[in-house]
Design brief:
The complex is a heterodimer.
Chain A: E1 16-19, E2 22-30, E3 36-37, E4 52-57, E5 60-69, E6 80-87, E7 93-98, E8 110-116, E9 122-126
Parallel strand pairs in A: 7-9
Antiparallel strand pairs in A: 1-2, 2-3, 2-4, 5-6, 5-8, 6-7, 8-9
Chain B: E1 5-11, H1 22-37, E2 44-48, H2 56-61, E3 71-74, H3 80-93, E4 100-107, H4 123-126, H5 131-146, H6 150-164, H7 178-183, E5 186-188, E6 191-192, E7 201-209, E8 218-226, H8 241-255, E9 264-266, H9 272-281, H10 292-296, H11 312-315, H12 320-336, E10 349-356, E11 366-373
Parallel strand pairs in B: 2-3, 2-4, 9-10
Antiparallel strand pairs in B: 1-7, 1-8, 4-7, 5-6, 8-11, 10-11
Classes of the chains: A mainly beta, B alpha/beta.
């Protein structure tokens, strides 16, 4: 199977960059209300202020929930593990692939962003 | 007399129907609903379909001679059919039109071979999430937070299979056991195959108009449509909970009722966890205690407040656009006392709830809750 068709740019997944402490999500923080968002937004969707400022989040985070996908999905080879991760310091909740384990990490488990996988996904592993 | 009434309802059968077209399914639903309503024509049509091709509505309707009137197609994911119902109801209530047809059409088996996937332009779609894994995320969170067992999750599918066995239009007619549900193959942990609705094809319809002197008519006491708030790190509620809670609260208030006044529900149980969370959002159980409704039999046929007597999405089937109007048809039959072997005795007030989602970052694309009275 081929990789997912992400030709509809921009890529709707979190953008990851290497920071001084490891991989981080390159997102925005609202200067008015403090709302953190991983993806591009035209203004703060919470308070509507035009004060979104670039901010990096992570690499540390906590698993909000997780699952192992065991059915065929276009461009993917099951099984693979996904998690919603709340990034530290009131960072955004992101969807990431979990690497290094065949099991879904427990709710509340500590994880760490490792970077971008071959398919372009944000990846985390147990911290 | 102001207000809105359901004059008639109709549906096709539900299931894999490769020999039927979207149009031929719609003909069955529309002609049954018109005959049931005792009318031959309508002034306008709202049609819900999620994956239907452009022109699906007109393609179906012109062949049955429904032409020249306004035809409006709406899409709201799994709530597309109930969105059509809501808009038709508002059109009658505000006096815009008199007789309005609400129609839902979906032919999923010609569109998908496997699980439905969110759009590739969404984070979830681009990241390899299929719809079952979105609900699996909810189930995993809910299990960890509230201590619900896998057997309790499976109990939703067992209950609704018993109901579906009594519904001759349902897709799945066999009664399931907890062992069968948990023994079916794992789709996305912790949800097994029989905890997920199947792809199916169907159409369903309702004819709405002002209240008239006809004892079989069912009143629409209220109907509310909302889209989801942002769903992000600020909430620990699972996806789809808050939108249903807020929509239901507004629908009860507009109808001037409380949840205790409702005799039965048709709700969005596309996956087992969905019914547990939704019954809490509807106020049937406190947060985290929805599974107790299954343990006690409260929401089974014969219990005090049956939920999904039709078999729900799990057993009847979930052809997205048709679902909301199939739910509406079931509540209508129940409130008339025409539901046969699955009749809820003495049912006077019934609620329809549908929640559609898929777009990343919001708590559901749309939810509709309608309060009906016989």
């Amino acid at each position: 199977m081929s990789a997912p068709d992400t030709s509809l740019s921009p890529d709707p997944r979190p953008q990851i960059e290497e920071g001084p402490s490891g991989a981080q999500v390159s997102g925005s923080l609202c200067g008015a209300c403090g709302y953190a968002v991983a993806l591009e937004r035209p203004r703060c969707p919470v308070c509507h202020a035009d004060r979104l400022e670039p901010r990096r989040f992570g690499p540390g985070g906590t698993v909000w929930s997780s699952t192992v996908v065991r059915i065929p999905v276009a461009g993917r080879t099951p099984p693979y593990t996904l998690a919603y991760v709340n990034l530290d310091e009131n960072g955004p909740r992101i969807l990431a692939h979990v690497i290094g384990s065949d099991a879904a990490p427990a709710v509340g488990a500590r994880v760490r962003l490792t970077g971008v996988g071959a398919d372009g996904d944000a990846e985390v592993e147990a911290a | 007399m102001s207000g809105v009434a359901i004059w008639g309802v109709g549906t096709s059968r539900f299931g894999r129907q490769p020999d039927e077209s979207p149009a031929s399914l719609a003909w069955k639903a529309v002609l049954e609903a018109l005959a049931d309503a005792g009318t031959d024509s309508v002034d306008a049509v709202w049609v819900g379909t999620c994956f239907g091709a452009p022109g699906t509505a007109q393609r179906a309707l012109h062949a049955a001679g429904i032409t020249e009137v306004p035809i409006v197609t709406v899409e709201n994911a799994c709530a597309s059919g109930t969105t059509a119902l809501h808009e038709a109801s508002e059109a009658v209530r505000t006096g815009r039109y008199e007789r309005v047809l609400a129609l839902g059409i979906e032919h999923l088996t010609s569109t998908f071979a496997g699980a439905i996937e969110p759009e590739q332009g969404d984070t979830e779609g681009a990241s390899g999430m299929a719809l079952p894994s979105i609900y699996a995320m909810s189930a995993a969170r809910y299990v960890a937070e509230h201590g619900v067992t896998h057997e309790q999750l499976a109990a939703v599918a067992v209950k609704n299979s018993r109901h579906g066995a009594l519904n001759e239009r349902a897709m799945r007619r066999g009664e399931l056991t907890v062992e069968q549900v948990l023994g079916s193959r794992m789709v996305a942990d912790p949800l097994t195959l029989l905890q997920c609705c199947s792809l199916s094809d169907a159409a369903a319809a309702a004819v709405l108009g002002p209240p008239r002197d006809e004892p079989r008519d069912v009143r629409i006491r209220s109907s509310v449509l909302r889209s989801g708030a942002l769903w992000d790190q600020r909430t620990d509620h699972v996806w789809g909970y808050e939108i249903v809670r807020e929509t239901a609260s507004a629908a009860y208030e507009q109808a001037g009722i409380g949840v205790a006044d409702v005799d039965l529900f048709e709700v969005h149980d596309a996956f087992t966890i969905g019914e547990i969370v939704t019954t809490e959002a509807l106020g049937l159980a406190p947060e985290g205690e929805g599974a107790a409704l299954l343990d006690s039999g409260t929401t089974a046929l014969g219990g005090s407040t049956p939920v999904n007597p039709s078999g729900g999405l799990l057993a009847r089937g979930h052809p997205l656009g048709a679902t909301g109007l199939a739910q509406t048809a079931e509540i209508t039959w129940q409130l008339r006392g025409e539901a046969g072997p699955r009749q809820v005795e003495g049912a006077r007030i019934g609620v329809v709830e549908t929640m559609g989602g898929g777009v990343s970052g919001i708590d559901g694309n749309g939810a509709v809750v309608a309060v009906l009275e016989g």
